[in-house]
Specification:
The structure is a single chain. The chain has one domain: Porin (Beta Barrel). The chain has about 375 residues and is mainly beta. The protein is globular and about 60 Å long. Strand 17 and strand 18 form a beta hairpin. The longest helix is centred in the N-terminal third of the chain and has 20 residues. A 16-stranded antiparallel β-barrel has the order 1-3-4-5-6-7-8-9-10-13-14-15-16-17-18-19. Strands 11-12 form a two-stranded antiparallel ribbon.
Length: about 375
């Protein structure tokens, strides 16, 4: 038997279908494309025994260049699915960073809800998040990475992380089953550590925890991270001495941080301490890195900031002090130009390099080193 639908009923069905479509659309992923393009020209004195070098650095400027995709999907009940894919690249040659990985900076998927965020993949460790507030210059070419190249590269493969916040207090934890599954190295001088093998369940393992508190004008944070050794891994203190072998799953490389910052109007000051301890059957080495920085927005367009770093490695009899000063002028919301300069003082047995711009600038032992860079940065 055939039947006819009245005109009012047809319009009601069309309206219902439209509402249903809107409901489906609202549940779809919200995906954002973003990135940073940052480079310039750098001068480094005493780049080797042969003298100075002028170059376009391969790794970073004010911020490392990158592009990425991140997205969320509302799952209902206060839950949301999240993902992020982030690729690092070098402007001077257009090549991929992080050992040639397509998404070497971040690649994870997870779920976010009222009780925190749980995610899986290649992610930052808690050391990275703990330093975000107190380290004023961050991953700058003349920043903390000049003394410890792991800091701007503090990320691991095969990791599960959890973060939860409540009224300004944040707790975070991460666990990696094998911090370098691609076998390309997570940071300079660290070698490779592809993951656990049968009978060696902690080989190449990494775990970290963080606790921080952020108020409207100040914050404090602390973290602890432990790495285990594995085949082809190394422990480098970046002071000119050869990296230590780090091949056993019983070897440990730990970093502990404590930092704080304070804001007053256009002024910010931050500082802290990073202690490192490498323990193997052959070495037992400690270092202490102290930092203090400040930033001031002279005008909405002009930012002046700087930081002082001091590292002490008594076991190696090496010490270094670096001072960095930077000025940034924003041409628009997304585009800025900058000038920065730094000088690093090495002790008699140290050979720290002022530049974190891609290596190849280690000075002669005991030699001081200056770095100057003029650059441009665009975000999208």
């Amino acid at each position: 038997m055939a039947f006819r639908i009245s005109r009012p009923m047809q319009m009601a069905l069309v309206a219902a279908a439209g509402l249903a479509a809107c409901g489906v659309a609202s549940a779809q992923s919200n995906v954002t494309l973003y990135g940073i393009v940052d480079t310039g020209i750098e001068y480094v004195s005493h780049a080797s025994a042969n003298g100075a070098v002028v170059r376009m650095p391969g790794v970073t400027g004010e911020l490392p260049s990158r592009w990425g995709l991140r997205g969320t999907e509302d799952l209902g009940g206060g839950l949301a699915a999240i993902f992020q894919l982030e690729s690092g690249f070098n402007i001077r040659g257009g090549d991929l960073g992080q050992g040639g990985r397509l998404f070497g900076r971040q690649a994870f998927v997870g779920v976010k809800g009222p009780y925190g965020t749980l995610s899986f993949g290649r992610q930052y460790t808690m050391t990275y998040y703990a330093l975000l507030g107190s380290d004023v210059l961050g991953p700058d070419i003349y920043g903390m990475g000049s003394f410890d190249a792991y800091i701007p590269n503090a990320r691991t493969d095969n990791s599960v992380t959890y973060q939860v916040g409540w009224q300004g207090l944040t707790f975070g934890a991460g666990y990696s089953f094998g911090r370098d599954s691609a076998g390309t190295g997570n940071s300079p001088g660290q070698g490779t550590c592809a993951g656990q093998v049968p009978g060696q369940s902690v080989q190449c393992r990494d775990w970290s925890v963080m606790l921080k508190y952020d108020a409207s004008n100040f914050g404090v944070a602390a973290s602890y991270e432990e790495q285990r050794g594995g085949t082809n891994a190394a422990a480098n203190f970046f002071d000119g001495l050869a990296p230590a072998a780090f091949a056993s799953s019983g070897d440990k490389d730990t970093r502990t941080t404590l930092g704080a910052y304070y804001k007053y109007g256009a002024f910010k000051v931050g500082g802290g301490w990073l202690g490192r301890h490498v323990s193997t059957s052959a070495v037992n080495t400690h270092s202490n890195l102290f930092y203090l920085g400040a930033a001031y927005n002279v005008t909405p367009a002009w930012l002046v900031d700087g930081e002082v770093y001091r590292i002490i490695n008594s076991d190696h009899n090496t010490r270094g002090t670096m001072t960095t000063l930077r000025a940034t002028y924003s041409l628009s919301v997304r585009t800025a130009v900058y000038a920065q300069a730094a000088y690093l003082f090495n002790s008699a047995h140290a050979a720290y390099s002022v530049s974190g711009g891609g290596g190849g600038t280690t000075p002669p032992t005991g030699e001081g080193q200056a770095g100057v860079m003029l650059g441009m940065r665009h975000t999208f």
